[in-house]
C-alpha cells in the first residue's frame, strides 16, 4: 500500500533535511514515499527551543500541512518534539493524517514499558513537554525528565560528548528515577538510540524514527478502515467560505 | 499606581474595539490606562473559533505583545477565551505581565465557588478549552461545558435570543450539572452576565471584565513586590542575539 | 518485512477462528503471516464475560504465547477486550511482541479523537474494562461506556438487531456523552464498524482489526529498531531454572 | 474605591499586629482601610502549628469574621497558611469576602510559574497544607515542600539564620525539585521574600502580602461586578432562625 | 478483648443518644463497651448541616475526645458524616483511636463495590463531603451524590416518606449513575439500610453502624499489633508544655 | 460470632503453612477458626515474584476459593501481596468474603497515616503493585516503594540481614521520601514489623496479619448487616448453567 508521507522540519534551515531523508529511506516501508521539507530560508528560527520561536513559524508549518494535503500526502509529520500545532493541522486537513514526535514516541513507550524518562536538551524545555505528556494521558507513567544541558545544535557537534551525557542521563533515569523505557526528546538527538539501547539494556525511542513509523501505521489504518482524525469536535474543519474570504492559505 | 494595560482583540476587525474600550473605561481603576487594539485589517480571521485561525494570527499577536513591552505597557491581555500563545507571550516579555480570559476567569471562579460550568458558543470549542481547564489545575472543579449553539458573531446579533439561551444553559448547569459558579466562555458574550447573575442567583463571570481586573491585580503585585512571570524555566526569554539574527520582531 | 503474527481466541471453541482468519487475510500487510488459534476444545468457556472464566483459561493462553515464541511468531495477540494476562505474556516472551484489543484500540482512539465511548455488551463488563482504560492512561479521555445489553454470543445472531442497538448507543454517546470517537468493546462485535462509521460520521474502532494492525506496527519497530517490551522491571522474564524446575511450560 | 479589609491574626497574642499593620499600610491601595486584630489574650495558642490549636480558636475566628461583616468590612483575611475555616467563614458572611494566605499565594504562584515549592517551618505542617494544595487544584504544580526545621516563633528571632535556611531551601527547591516559583508558607516568614527573590532570581511569594492584595482584588470585582462567594451550595448561609435560636454569635 | 468505645453525637441535644446506644448494644462485639455522649445542652446546634455549626462545636468535640483518652477509651467516634476535626482529634490523643462515619463507610464501600453513590439530605452538604471523598482517595470510585431534599431532623419524622425517597434515590444511583454500592450519608439516616439493601439488591452502608465496627477493628489491631495513628507528621501530638500553658483542655 | 477463615498460600509448597497457622492462632479472635492451605505439591511455583507464576496457579487458587465457600468458610484470603484474582474470586463466591494482603494493608495504612512506603523484595515487583495501589485509590498517598534486593525465599534465611535491610529502607522512606506509615509488601516478610515499628517509631503493617484482621472485620459486618461484595456489576456471579456445562469447578 502506497503511503506518501511528508516530514516537516519546522525550522528555517535545510541543514538536517538530507540526513533525515536518507535515514528515513533506510527504514521506511518499501512502498512509502517520504519527503522532507523545511521552512523558507528567510531569516528565522533554526531551532524551536523557545515557544516564541514556534509561534513565529506556526503559520508556515500550517501552510505546509495544508499544501501536503493538496499534494495528496497521506500523512504529515511536524518534526519537533514540542508537537506544535497538532490541533490546527488536524483541522485544516480533511483526509491527511497528522502526527508528531512526542505523540508517537509516548504511545510507543507506554506500550513497551511502564515508567518513562525523557532526555531533553535543556531544563527550559520541560514545562511545555510535560504539558503534552499529561495532555496525551501519560502523566502517571512519567518517571522523569533529564536534561543534558545542551542546545538543539549541540547534539551533533561532538558525538562522543553527546553520547557520554545521554548515557549518564539514562543511567540516572534507570537507577534513581525508576525508568524502564527512554525517549530521546528531540528530533536532533538522532543517531544515538541504538548504542545506548544495546549497551544499557533499556528500550530507547528515537524521536524522529518513532513518528515516521507511527505515521505509516496511521495511514495504513486510515486507508484500510477509514479511521482518521475525528471531525466532530476538536479537529472539526473550518468552513471553506471563511478560508477563502480570509485568504488564509 | 499607574497601570498601563493593553487589550489585544486577536482578530482582523476593529468591530469590538470601541465597545471594549468604553466598557473597560467604566470599570478600570482610576489610574489605569487601558488601550484596545486589534490586528491589521488585512483579510484574516474575524473570529478564532478554529484553532487554525488562531495559528494564522499568532505571530501578529506575539508582535503586539512584544510591542506592548516596548511601549511600556505593564500588562497585555490576549482577548480570546482559548488563551492563545500565553507561554510565548510570557517568554518574549521580560517585565510586562501577560494574562488572558480563561486563566483569569477560572482563578476567580475557583475562589468564588466549587463547581464551574462554562457557557460556550459551539461544541467545537470544548476540547481546546477543556485542555486549558485541566492545564490550569481546575479539572476537578469543572461541572460542565454548555453549548449555546451560536458562533462568536451571533452573540450580539439578537440580544434577547442570546439571553434566552444563556439562561437556559445556566439553568441546566445549576440544576443538572451541579454548577455553583458560571463562566461565559467567550469575550464576545459581553453584556449578559449581570442580568443572568441577578436573576438566577449564581455568580456569572464575564470573560472580558475578568482578565482586565486580573491584569490590574497582577500589575499591582508586580510593581509592589516584584512578582512577575518566572524566568527560570517555561517562561525563560530567548537570547537577544537569536531574536536579532532571525529578525523575529 | 515478514511478520508472523498469532491471534489467540482465548475460548474453547473454534467457532470464530475461520472468520477471523479470513477477515485478517483481507487486511493484513502482504508479507504478514497471520494464524488464528483457539483453546483446546475440552469443556470450558466459550466466552470470557466473567473474570473467573478468564482465570480458568489463563494458563493455556500463556502456554500458547510461550509456544508462539518457540514457533518464531513475531507477535501474539490475546484476542479478548479485557486484555487478559498482558503482563505475564510479556514476561514469558523474550522477543515476541504481545498486544491485545483494548490496548491497541485505545492508543488508536486517543490519537484520532479526544473523547472516547466504548460500546460493550453488558454492564457487567464495565468495571474491569474501566480499570484498563485508567491503567493505560486514558481515563481523562473516557466519555462513557454504553451497554448494548447483549452477550458475546448475541452479537452475530441477529445482525440487524445488533446494528440497531449499536447505532442507538453511538447516537447517545455522541449527543449526550460528548464522544467523538467510538470503540466497539468486544472482538465479536466485528462486521459493524464500517456502516456505523460512515452513517454516523464518527471514527469507529473495531476491536479485532485494531490489534492486528497494532501488532504489525509493533513488530516493525521491533525488527527495525530493536524496540521491544522493556525487560527491566514489570516485564522482566523469569529465570530459566525456575521455569524448568517447576515445569510450567 | 474604598476597600475596608480586616486581617485576623488567629492567635492569642498581639505580638505581630503592629508589624503587620505597618507593613500593610506601606503596600495597600490608597483608599484601602486595613485593620489588624488578634484573638482575646486569654491563655490560648500563640501559634497554630498543630491542627488542635486551630480547632480551639476556630469559634473565635468565626465570630471575628461575622463581626467584620457587621462592621461593614468588605473583606476578612484569616491570617494563617493553613487557611482555617474558610468554608465556615464564607457561610456566615453574606457579602463580605473571605480569603486566606495559602489560597491567595497559590493562585498567584500558579499564574507566575509552573512548578511551586513551599517553604515551611516544620515537616509536621506538610500534610495539612498538602491537602489544601490539592483541594485548590494545584497538586500537579507542586514541586515540593521544604522544611526549615523552625517553629513559627523562630522565624523572627535570628534573621540571619532564618535567611540562611530559606536560601538553602530555595536553592534545593530550584536545583533538585525543579521549582520555578516559591511560596514562604507561613505568615510569620515575613521580611525575607525580597532579598531571596532578587538574589536567587525566582519569584518568592510572601504569605501575608499575597492575601492582602488578593483581598483587595476580590473586593474590587465584588463591588464592581457583584462577583462574590456563591451562595448556592458549599458556601450557602445558614438560616437566621437557627443562628438566633442557638445564640451562635 | 475489651474495647471501650465512645460515640460522640456532636450536637447539643441528647435526642438520639438513647437510640444510638440501644442500636449499638445490639451489634457490638460482646466485650465492647459502648457509650454515647452528646454536647452540653446549652443553646447550640442540634444538627451540623452547615460548616459554621461544626466550627462552633469543634472545641467541645475535641475536649470530649481528649477526655475519652483520659478515661481510657480505646476509641472515639465523631458521629457526623462530615468527619469533623479528625486530624485535631488524632493529634490530641496519644493512644486512643479516632474515626468517623465517612472514613469508615468509604473504606468499607470501596472494598465491597467499585462505584459508590452517597445519599445525602441536601445539595448543600455535597461540596464538603466530596472534598472528603477525594481526600480519602476514593474520588475515582464516586458514582454520584443524590440529595433527598430533607434536613437532618426530617429523616426520622415520617419513615415511610424517607424510605420512599431513599429508594427513589438508590434506584437512580443504580440505573443512571452506575452505582453498585450505596452509603447513607448521614448518621441520622439510621434504620433504613436493611430494607433498601434487601429489596434493591445492593449493599447499603449505614453511617452509624459502619464507624462502630471500623472502630472495633482499629482498636483490635491497635491492641494486638501496636498499629495506631502515625505520630510522625500530620497527627503528631502537641508538646505538653503548650497544652498546659495555654489551658486548652 | 464464629468466623471461619481460610488463608490460601498460593504456592506449591507447604513450607510456611504451619508457621502462618501458629502465628494466626495467636492473634485471631477467640471464635475465629483459621485454616491455612497451600497448593498441590506438584512441581510448580514456590513463590509468585513473576506474574507468569501467578497466572499458572490462578485456576487452582480460584478452585480453592470456590471450595472454601462450599465448605462454609466465611472468608478466604489470597495470601500474596499482588492480590491475585481478587475480582474472579469475588465473582465465584456468593456469600464468602474474599480479601488479600495489599488491599487490607493499604486500607489500614491510609487510616493510620497519610504518606505510605511499601518495602518490597525486588524492583521487579513494583509496577504490578503500583497498579494495585492506584486501583484501590491510594496513589496520592504513596510516598515510595523501597526494594530490599531480596527474593521471597531470602527474607527468612538470615533474619539479622533482613532486619538490617528493612531498617535501612524504612529510615530512607521516613527521612527522604516523607513516609509516615510503612507496609512490608510481602507476606513472607513476617516476623519483622514489631521491632522495626518500636525502634523506628512508625507504624509498620505486616502483610499477613493485616488481611487476617481485615477478613474478620469484613465477616463481622457481613454477618451483622448483610454487607458483602456487590453482585451488581464487577463481582456479579456467573450463571450456574455455564459453570456446570463448562465443568470449571
UniProtKB/TrEMBL annotation, chains A, B, C, D, E, F:
Keyword Isomerase set for record: yes
Entry EC number(s): 5.1.99.3
Keyword Amino-acid biosynthesis among UniProt keywords: no
Keyword terms of this UniProt record: Isomerase
Gene3D superfamilies in alphabetical order: 3.40.50.12500
GO MF annotation terms: allantoin racemase activity; amino-acid racemase activity
Residues forming coiled coils: none
Listed InterPro entries: Asp/Glu/hydantoin_racemase, Hydantoin_racemase-like, Iso_Racemase_Enz_sf
Entry's family note: Belongs to the HyuE racemase family.
Name by which UniProt lists this protein: Allantoin racemase
Source species taxonomy: Bacteria, Bacillati, Bacillota, Bacilli, Bacillales
Amino acid at each position: 500500500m502506497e503511503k506518501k508521507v511528508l516530514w516537516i522540519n519546522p525550522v528555517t534551515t535545510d541543514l538536517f533535511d538530507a540526513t533525515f531523508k536518507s535515514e528515513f529511506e533506510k527504514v521506511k516501508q518499501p512502498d512509502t514515499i517520504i519527503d522532507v521539507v523545511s521552512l523558507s530560508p528567510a531569516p528565522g528560527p533554526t531551532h524551536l527551543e523557545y515557544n516564541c520561536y514556534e509561534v513565529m513559524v506556526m503559520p508556515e508549518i500550517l501552510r505546509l500541512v495544508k499544501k501536503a494535503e493538496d499534494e495528496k500526502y497521506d500523512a504529515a509529520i511536524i518534526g519537533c518534539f514540542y508537537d506544535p500545532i497538532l490541533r490546527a493541522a488536524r483541522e485544516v486537513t480533511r483526509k491527511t493524517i497528522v502526527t508528531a514526535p512526542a505523540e508517537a514516541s509516548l504511545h510507543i513507550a507506554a506500550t513497551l514499558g511502564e515508567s518513562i524518562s525523557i532526555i531533553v536538551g535543556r531544563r527550559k524545555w520541560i514545562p511545555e513537554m510535560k504539558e503534552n505528556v499529561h495532555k496525551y494521558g501519560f502523566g502517571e507513567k512519567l518517571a522523569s525528565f533529564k536534561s543534558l544541558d545542551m542546545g538543539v545544535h549541540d547534539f551533533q557537534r561532538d558525538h562522543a560528548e553527546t553520547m557520554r551525557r545521554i548515557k549518564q542521563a539514562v543511567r540516572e533515569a534507570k537507577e534513581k528515577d525508576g525508568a524502564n523505557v527512554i525517549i530521546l526528546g528531540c528530533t536532533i538527538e538522532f543517531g544515538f538510540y541504538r548504542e545506548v539501547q544495546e549497551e544499557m539494556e533499556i528500550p530507547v525511542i528515537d524521536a524522529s524514527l518513532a513518528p515516521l513509523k507511527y505515521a505509516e501505521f496511521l495511514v495504513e489504518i486510515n486507508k484500510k478502515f477509514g479511521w482518521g482524525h475525528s471531525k466532530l469536535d476538536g479537529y472539526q474543519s473550518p468552513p471553506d467560505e471563511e478560508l477563502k474570504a480570509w485568504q488564509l492559505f
